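Protocol step 4 of 5: obtain the predicted structure for the target chain.
Materials: sequence only (see below). No template structures provided, no constraints applied. The aim of this step is simply to have a reference model before the mutagenesis design in step 5. Sequence pasted as it appears in the construct record:
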Amino acid sequence: MFGWLWSLIVGAIIGAIAGAIMNRGASMGWIANILAGLIGSWLGQSLLGSWGPSLAGMALVPSILGAIILVLIVSAVMGSRHK
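Step 4 output (structure tokens):
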């Protein structure tokens, strides 16, 4: 019943971890963290598979790595637009 809420919470945590690793967590905000976590989870599991511990149907290690990749890509695009 509350599976979507659990997915949003785990997505936010994954996005926050990726933002903290990339030193972008505070500047991203919670909505961006949730989006980075959910999209990064999909990206990471698509590229790396579903291995390691999982929460809410998301394999944590590939999800965090996917979110880091996503944060890198978005930072590069946003950085190049500001120059």
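Step 4 remarks: The CA atoms of residues 11 and 35 lie 7 Å apart. The chain has a mean pLDDT of 82.
Proceed to step 5.
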